[in-house]
Amino acid sequence: MRRPPAPWLWLLAVALPCAVAALSLGTPYVPAHRLPQVLGGDGLASVVVGELRLPRLVLALVAGACLGAAGLVLQEALRNPLAVPEMLGVSSGAALGVAAPLVLSLSVPLAVQPFLALAGAALGGLLTLAAAGLGRSPSAVLLTGAAVAAALQAALLVLMVLADQLDLQLIYRYLLGSLSARTWDDVTGLWPWLAVALPALVLCVPVLGVLRLGDDDARALGVRVGRARVAALGVTVLLIAPVVAVCGPVAWVGFLAPHLARRLRPGADAAGLLGYAAACGAVVVVCADLPARLLLAPVETPVGAWTALFGVPVGVALLKWRTPERSSPAPAPGDRAALRKAER
Amino acid sequence: MSAARTAAPVLRRGRTGTRVKAAVLVVLALAAGVAGLVAGPAVTTADVAEVFAGGGDPLARHIVLNLRLPRALVALTAGACLALAGLVLQSALRNPLAGPEVTGVTPGAVLGAVTATGLGLAGWQSPTAVVVAACLGGCAGAGLLWLLAGRERGDPEQTAVHGVLVSAVLTGATAVVLLIAPGELGSVVQWLVGSTEGRVWRHWELLWPWALCWGAAAWLLAGPLTLLRCGDEQAAALGLDIGRARAAALACAVALTAGAVSAVGALGFVGLLVPHVALAVFGADLRATLPGAALLGAVVVGGADAGAQLLSRALAQALDADRLTVPVGALTTCAGAALLLIVARRRADLR
Question: From which residue to which does any coiled coil extend (chain A) (predicted)?
Fold first, then answer.
């Protein structure tokens, strides 16, 4: 029997054409074979490619990777395939933190914005976890999260009603998650945050593997489950907040990417999935940015609208029609049966 | 043993109690309406009384009779519609979490209305088209959830979770439509959160026949719905055509929601939580509970409208900003989210 090609080949096969298309399509059109030459040279085309399209592509990759990894950490930590940042009030909280000073016309330096997003995201996530209780059934956590997210959304909408027309356009685009007109400054602002978040992510991965066994087993192995969950939430908030501060909550990438990763690497543990979840997230955002930028040109649509439109149905489909022989015998999070069992 | 038969003597015994409760609610609804009339800025309570006595200066007359009165009436009627829709949905699907917001009906209706406005098919000049588009959108949203939920339709919490996913998709679609046709983003945003700002007699004239017609339909369905609440098998054993009754109930709920959404926008959590309160107050016999839920919804939204006006007045004074208005939807959503948190917490404790 022939071995199927390695999963990362699939990812690369999708990512490379998308990346090339992201750099070459648009006005002016730069053919793919001229890209290296244009990047090195100068002139209008090279400014457009080097100063606009390339940072946008890098930002899409980084944002997608962060969101994908954050989604995986949350899903594994809460052992719930639907525990995504959007469902837990984390994204809405972060967005609220960034949008509030914008509307109330307080001038905030660019470097402080991630801190505001961080505070908002932590508020949303902690509110959900505190209200739902840590060790409760997955669906109770989700319902509570939906309620918290709805309340935060209502606060956001109130802010939008208060804003004037010009601000409103900006805020609405931002709230949906948009990558338009981001430059290298935005990208470089992300690195210090990643430098903090990545080691934290690596440190929390082994604990995630233990949490997957179930609360009782994890406790028997000496893991303090409640603290581990809060720590995982903290890592998630660290990953999401800077991304939201720069390009808004690109919705549902944290839902789709881990499920794609599980489909690519069936039966892998949290450590094995993490890289794939990040890669899938990056690919998803880069792919979604293409229609966002080009489909309705010259009008740009926010990338978050596209990830929500297509990400949710695809994610649900992956969740439902998961082939039974591929799923691991242990109750992997993502298993529909496990979800139902956990609810009882 | 049918619940309808056991409910009958209980109802007879509790009839006076029900009447008292209903009378209290009517009084409360009137109070909410009056509060909505006097709560706004610039016209004092004495002015309002003078206008209704037939006097008052022209400006006050215009404000009270042409702006405040239709606004209060629209708020009361829309609240009644949403509460009825919620109760009908929850009974027909036997799912305590099946509010119109959760089953994709409200987001779908918003999408339909926004699309119709964005494509230029409808506007304030042709409000009927908005209602029709909202209806179509509501049906589409409910259908989407039906497809998505698949075999897990029976599980209330799964359905609610899937409903959130459906809402996410529909919200994404709404966003795309809004940004393609960004002309009236400001007014549309008020619609997304649910607002009674600037509702005039035109809206009321459009809303009340629709509400009356479908409200009557819901009341006619009270008997079958009570049976459906008892379970499919019992209802079938009593000779009810389950499929047809459920389809009629769903159509009724979608129509009621669409009417309310096209009038005041997506008011959060009214359709999800008011039916629970109504059931707690009036009991499981829907022949009494349906009108009760309508009254209760009117009280809640009318009261929230008055509260929002008071709050925006207080905020405007405190912050010294003129254009500060708190939309009703923000109040209902915040109150509803708080209630839902408590309920979820209690359900989790029960397990």
Answer: none
Residue B1 lies in a domain: no
Decide if B167 touches A, using CB distance below 8 A: no
Residue B149 at interface with chain A, using a CB cutoff of 8 Å: no
Domain that includes residue B174, residue range: 30-350
Q: Is B329 on the interface with A (CB under 8 A)?
A: yes
pLDDT tens-digit series, residues B29-55: 888 888 888 887 777 788 888 888 887
Q: How many domains does chain B have?
A: 1
| Predicted model pTM | 0.79
Concatenated DSSP letters of A169-208: HHHHHHHH---TT--HHHHHHHHHHHHHHHHHHHHHHHHH
Residues of A with CB below 8 A from B164's CB?
87, 142, 146
Residue B12 lies in a domain: no
DSSP state of B1: -
pLDDT mean for each 10 residues of chain B (351 residues): 48 69 88 84 80 82 86 92 92 80 85 81 68 86 80 67 81 80 66 78 86 93 88 85 85 89 83 88 86 92 90 79 74 82 67 51
CATH code of the domain covering residue B337: 1.10.3470.10
Q: What gap in Å lies between CA B29 and CA B327, rounded to an integer?
A: 20
Asked, for residue B319, whether it belongs to a domain, the answer is yes
What separation in angstroms does the CA of A76 have from each of A129, A211, A279, B89, B113? 15, 7, 17, 34, 39
State residue B128's pLDDT score: 74
| Chain A neighbors of B168, CB-CB under 8 A | 86, 251-252, 308, 312
Q: Which CATH class is domain A7-343?
A: mainly alpha
Q: Is residue B11 part of a domain?
A: no
For chain A, domain boundaries: 7-343
Measured from the Cβ of residue B46, the count of other Cβ atoms closer than 10 Å reads 11
pLDDT at A329 over 60: no
pLDDT tens for B307-329 read 988 888 888 777 766 666 778 88
**Substitution target from A105, A126, A143, A301 for chain B, most B beta carbons within 10 A:** A143
